[in-house]
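testing teh design pipeline on a random one, pls ignore if ur not involved
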């Protein structure tokens, strides 16, 4: 696209002149230096937040098997141990990597449900994003083509142009916004965020009939950790790994798992974190506040993180659960929460009926006519 613009556009509109000499050198599926530092900072923040627990045991760390997720885990560990005053001389030591190969059960990466991956419901996301793009995209597309005569950008390429703002920004070390960001208004960025929110909602969240099902395996692992009982799951978990105290210990105080934004979206849906959110409309955008905190930017930004805390307060022996998403407390709604959004552990586990009942996993096989 950039090459076509540079070869076909002779006169650039005001503010678009930088495109004439822009050098596209973004990698694919790589963690940028900025992203690596975010994960180091995340490890530092994690240690400082839970410093009182860190002396009891080292965190048990798992990652999905793609390179950037593995590096994410390594940088997190580096920041954690550096803050603790220990040298993470071997960042991979102690990190359990779950391969993303086809046929390997992996609760940190979707891919084991054929009806979700390849059936008709796999098209819901693209169809709904296309509908919203048809609402907000044409005006932007006309302006871009007016400012870049000869480029003949399509609606889809309009989104690609907007994508270059965040990806170029985090690919540099100057801490400055990319010039691409200034090509669009604040309202247009809100529409773009909504476009990405539709991706997560209808691709991997509650807007997809089998979206939450992709997070059930992790949900059952979470229940096991919270209750100190063996994993009971027949979806995406690896029974060999999860039945071993070496590869799935239940006696750690701290755990850290690293996954992809799409799988995280399914996990959030399986846990019911956005059960109060209505299905996202396709003809107009709705703010994250009206959606009870849901948007792609709020839920799964770069370096997104979910903390699930088990705690006891004061002299009470009652164990409580609190969920924090990107430093915001998520008010739990289905387990008789207190005024701080926390639930009793038993109530929280009991509320995860979708997870404990198998999460519609029996619908994953593709039927013969698909």
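output:
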């Amino acid at each position: 696209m950039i090459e076509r613009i540079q070869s076909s556009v002779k006169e650039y509109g005001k503010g678009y002149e930088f495109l004439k000499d822009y050098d596209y050198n973004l990698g694919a599926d790589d963690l940028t230096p900025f992203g690596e530092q975010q994960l180091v900072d995340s490890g530092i923040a994690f240690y400082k937040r839970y410093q009182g627990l860190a002396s009891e045991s080292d965190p048990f760390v798992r990652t999905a098997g793609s390179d950037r997720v593995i590096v994410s885990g390594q940088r997190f560990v580096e920041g954690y141990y550096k803050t603790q005053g220990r040298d993470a001389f071997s960042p991979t030591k102690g990190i359990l990597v779950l391969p993303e190969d086809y046929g390997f059960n992996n609760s940190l990466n979707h891919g084991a449900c054929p009806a979700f991956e390849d059936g008709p419901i796999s098209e819901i996301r693209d169809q709904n994003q296309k509908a919203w793009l048809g609402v907000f995209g044409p005006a932007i597309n006309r302006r871009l083509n007016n400012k870049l005569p000869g480029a003949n950008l399509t609606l889809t390429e309009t989104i690609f142009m907007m994508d270059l703002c965040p990806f170029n920004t985090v690919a540099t070390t100057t801490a400055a916004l990319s010039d691409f960001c200034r090509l669009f208004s604040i309202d247009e960025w809100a529409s773009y965020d909504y476009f990405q929110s539709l991706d997560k909602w209808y691709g991997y969240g509650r807007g997809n009939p089998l979206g939450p099902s992709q997070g059930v395996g992790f949900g059952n692992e979470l229940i096991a950790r919270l209750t100190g009982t063996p994993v009971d799951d027949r979806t995406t978990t690896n029974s060999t790994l999860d039945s071993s105290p070496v590869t799935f210990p239940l006696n750690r105080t701290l755990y850290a798992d690293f996954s992809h934004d799409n799988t995280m979206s399914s996990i959030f849906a399986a846990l019911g974190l956005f059960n109060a959110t209505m299905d996202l409309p396709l003809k107009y955008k709705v703010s994250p506040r009206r959606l009870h905190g849901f948007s792609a930017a709020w839920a799964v930004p770069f370096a997104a993180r979910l903390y699930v805390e088990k705690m006891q307060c004061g002299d009470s022996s009652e164990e409580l659960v609190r969920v924090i998403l990107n430093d915001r407390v998520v008010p739990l709604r289905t387990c008789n929460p207190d005024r701080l959004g926390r639930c009793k552990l038993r109530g929280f586990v009991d509320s995860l009926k979708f997870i404990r009942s198998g999460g519609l996993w029996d619908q994953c096989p593709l039927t013969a006519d698909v």
